[in-house]
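Project channel, design review

CF: Before we commit to the Persephonella marina constructs, I'd like one complete example in the thread so the newer folks can see what an input/output pair looks like. Taking Large ribosomal subunit protein bL35.
RD: sounds good, go ahead.
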Amino acid sequence: MAKVKMKTNKTAAKRFKVTAKGKIKYWKGGVSHYNTKKSSKRKRQGRKADYVPENIADRVKQLIPYQV
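CF: and here is what came back for Large ribosomal subunit protein bL35:
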């Protein structure tokens, strides 16, 4: 029998990146349109990447098994 490989969730693979230290980085959404009503602070913070909290990082790692 052939060995069964885990499938990578392609949606998650496009949205998350694993850093050299093993943290999971993601980019915030919601700043591509309808920006006139948003404050400058909110738009500026949306440009920055952020890290997935540790309590859900394990679930994200299951979605991207070959990037970890």
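RD: helpful, thanks. The two ends are 26 Å apart (CA to CA).
CF: The chain has a mean pLDDT of 94.
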